[in-house]
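To: structure desk
From: M.T.
Subject: fold request, one chain
Message: Could you run this one when you get a chance? Sequence is below, nothing fancy, just the single chain.
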Amino acid sequence: MTLFDIPPAEDPGRPLAERLRPASLEDYVGQEHILGPGKPLRRQIEQDRLTSMILWGPPGAGKTTLARLLAKRSNADFVPFSAVMSGIKEVKEVMAGAERNRRMGMRTVIFVDEIHRFNKSQQDAFLPYVERGDVILIGATTENPSFEVNSALLSRTRVYALRPLTVEETSALLRRALALLDLRAAPGLLDHIAVFANGDARSAYNVLELAAAAAAGGEIGNQAVEDALQRKVLLYDKSGEEHYNLISALHKSIRSSDPDAALYWLARMLEAGEDRLYIARRLVRMAVEDIGLADPRALEQAVAAKDCAHFLGIPEGDQALAQAAIYLAAAPKSDAAYRALNLARDTVRTQTAEPVPMHLRNASTRAMKEWGYGEGYQHAHEFEDAVSNMECLPPSLEGTQFYSPLQRGVEARIAERLAEIKRRRTAS
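Reply: Done. Structure tokens follow.
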């Protein structure tokens, strides 16, 4: 079977995922890290120097589609091969045909789906043909090739790791599907399907196809998607009022030290398909605005949750957001640092910007030193406990206090330390 034996995409009897396979690399969505301008695989394609490779990635990331497009771009005979259905006999038959193709000046791309299912002997059967260049072998696997592909075969191939599709990429594919089906659906509904699919385009297409079968009046509604997913669909416009209502509820629940309410509102947002990094950014803001120095680790936890959510993706990364929400809700609260910066800003905006006092200026040249730069500066480390009585504010603001720590959490200790510093300065 060659690439050009594939039934036409318009055949309505074929699954939606098959009908929507892109016909060119320009229509391929995702994997910009290997297919973007200047990236390694893109350079191979542009130079028509395709070599044997292993495509390693999760289900529905586009491994089979990419292999077909590579073969088409290289004008090679495409032979799909299933590791589940084939043995050494079939391997040798296909390789004999590939050798004949080579003698006639035609290249052959052998695509082996689930190559990790081949045993050592079956994988070894490819070696001589790959070494002689009779075939370009493209293997696809969801398992780590380092563990599942023979080292001899692995050393003769290039491994490309494919990533799960993002919600935005999956939604873009679903919009194409709607055009093919001549149906309509709310953008939020497509985002919800994309979140559920978790980077698997085939899964997203299957859900949409099931929902399309129940569409009425040319539009896919919430109920059709709920029936396809077998779960409730919570939708809201990400730029509309409900979006802001929910994040406000989450913020106020954490500020009120109510972890159960925080988890509820967080779950509402996650189930509705909210952008995880948006939630993470808001959690970081809460750590700074409402907890501050009462628990300095709150900011560390929030930033770590952001990194974890980005690294793991959906759904595993959601647990990091939940953990951060619980931590922030349980943490001691203080907005003292938040209010202190606002007071300082108000002062800067409403009062004359006085020159920096001479003793705080750096005398980086001899002339500046002669002009009095740095004169009277007291180096803190030369004083007991590194506390001097030097004034660091402009004369008109001497003695002004912007930051007033609260008696909560770590900030209570900060208040004690600042009181001790004030006592030492007064005594000196």
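Reply (cont.): Residues 1-9 have pLDDT under 50 and may be disordered. Let me know if you need anything else for the meeting.
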